Amino acid sequence: MTSLLDAGETRHAIGSHQSASVKSHTGLTPPEIIDALGIFDLDPCACPPPRPWATARVHWTREGGPLRRAWPAEARVWLNPPFGPKRAVAAFMARMADHGRGTALLFARTETEVFFETVWSRASGMLFLQGRPHFHHQDGRRAKANSGAPVVLISYGSADAGRLKGSGLAGRYVSL
Ligand SMILES: C[S@@+](CC[C@H](N)C(=O)[O-])C[C@H]1O[C@@H](n2cnc3c(N)ncnc32)[C@H](O)[C@@H]1O
After folding, report:
1. DSSP per residue over 147-160, as a string?
2. 43 ligand 1 Cβ < 6 A
3. What are the CA-CA distances from residue 98 to residues 31, 93, 120, 152 (Å)?
4. Which ligand 1 atom is at minimum distance from the Cα of 136?
5. Could you give the CA distance from residue 32 to residue 56 in angstroms, rounded to a whole number?
6. If residue 104 lies in a helix (H) or strand (E), which one and from where to where?
7. What confidence tens digit (pLDDT) does each residue in 42-62 have?
8. Is residue 146 within 6 Å of ligand 1 at its C-beta?
9. How far does CA 4 lie from the centroid of its chain?
10. For residues 74, 78, 84 and 86, what is the CA-based torsion angle, rounded to 10 degrees?
11. Which of 37, 43, 62, 95 to mutate to test the pocket of ligand 1 (most atoms within 8 A of CB)?
């Protein structure tokens, strides 16, 4: 079972005991999530162009080495990290927590080291989505299968906590 991986990779992902999976390895965020949160300033884990819709005003892809670059302090960041290598998720989430402004999407593995180090102790809020979202293929098509595991949106900073809480997305908001 694969889910939310980089294009071309086939690794077993979290939620492998779950009942459904995304066959695409790109796992684009459903556009209704971005619409509900408002366009972001920077997506440091953008898919390569052409992309079916914008997640942010500025998109950085892996070729640009987004972890080697400084993230502009004022930028409201959207982060849906590559869910293949655990180290990549940890590195991007650590950078997001340090940045402190924006919203991230993760599987709701609330017991993990990454969650404890970068979410529970550092985020401003969480929205546990009701049901499992369907991610999208690079060409914009909605995946037939759902995410295969529960998903949580995580805000950093008070402004994004407010946006998340008021987003209207179905789920349960928890203030941190
Ligand atoms: C789960 S997708 C999210 C795409 C997009 N940000 C969105 O929310 O729809 C993760 C993206 O990260 C990109 N990626 C993979 N490894 C990366 C890396 N080391 N640095 C930056 N981006 C990477 C992949 O190309 C993939 O498009």
Report:
1. -SS-EEEEEESHHH
2. yes
3. 26, 9, 14, 19
4. 9
5. 14
6. strand 102-107
7. 999 999 999 999 999 999 999
8. no
9. 10
10. 50
11. 62
Nearest CA to ligand 1 atom 25: 47
Q: What average pLDDT does this structure show over 96-101?
A: 98
Q: Where are the domains of the chain?
A: 31-175
The Cα 146–Cα 131 span in angstroms is: 9
Ligand 1 contact, 157 CB (< 6 A):
no
d(CA 143, CA 30): 10
Q: Give the helix/strand (H/E) hosting 79.
A: strand 77-79
**The two three-digit tokens of residue 18, written as one number:** 């779950």
Residue 47 Cα to ligand 1 midpoint, Å, equals: 5
Of 87, 126, 111, 99, nearest to 43 by C-alpha is 99
* Mutate-to-test residue for ligand 1 from 3, 45, 78, 139, highest number of ligand atoms within 8 A of CB: 45
What are the tens digits of pLDDT across the range 69-95?
999 999 999 999 997 788 999 999 999
Rounded Cα distance between 2 and 115, Å, is 21
